[in-house]
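Hello, quick one for you while I still have it in my head. My current little project is about how a certain protein chain folds up. You're getting the sequence in one-letter code plus the fold written as tokens. Would you mind checking whether the tokens look sensible for this chain? Here's the protein in full, and shout if anything looks odd to you:
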Amino acid sequence: MPSPVRTSAAGEGLRARRRRETEHAIHAAAVRLVEEHGLAGVTVDMISAAAGISQRTFFNYFPSKESALTIGPPPLPDALHRRLAHGDPAPRKTLTELLDVLSMHITDDVVPDRELVQATFRIADRHPELRAALHARFDAFEEQVRQAVAERMAAPPADPRPRLLTGIALAVTRTALEQWSLGTTGDHPSPEPDLQQCVDLLHALMPKT
């Protein structure tokens, strides 16, 4: 029989995933409606109905229709945060671990829809306030990752290494997701092949000496 701790952890993981799936369903409904009717022509009631939820449930996830259009990366789960924050602090080892963690985080999460990703960025490009909100969400995720890297490296506040390594890893991830969303490397349903290709390219550009 599994221990209560392990059962609780599994339950939390399932609940978090279900919440993430509902969040994505609301986001997808909001994006589809705004693409069809424009931002001013869409209400929270319309989004809720399209997502098959109540307005009360909508507000359990998002404070406004604008926030439903600009979801970003979910926070790192505790297990991945611990894996990143503890381990060999050498820069190359840390970067390799960071790329593995980000790849796992993306592919273990609700797999994004290519057309939905494209539509989200189209909408953000048309509305500066949405673009700013989207960037803020990505910035918050980057800061969470940077803090975990700094903990791993026992880095003082002025140490540039955690920010630099985090920036490199997230640039690789963004490049892979852009490739995937545009379909430049093939029509595969998951961004995982693009992630692996970009990671391999980074390693090729940084050979061990």
Q: What stands out?
A: The chain has a mean pLDDT of 86. The CA atoms of residues 180 and 205 lie 21 Å apart. The first helix runs from residue 4 to 37.
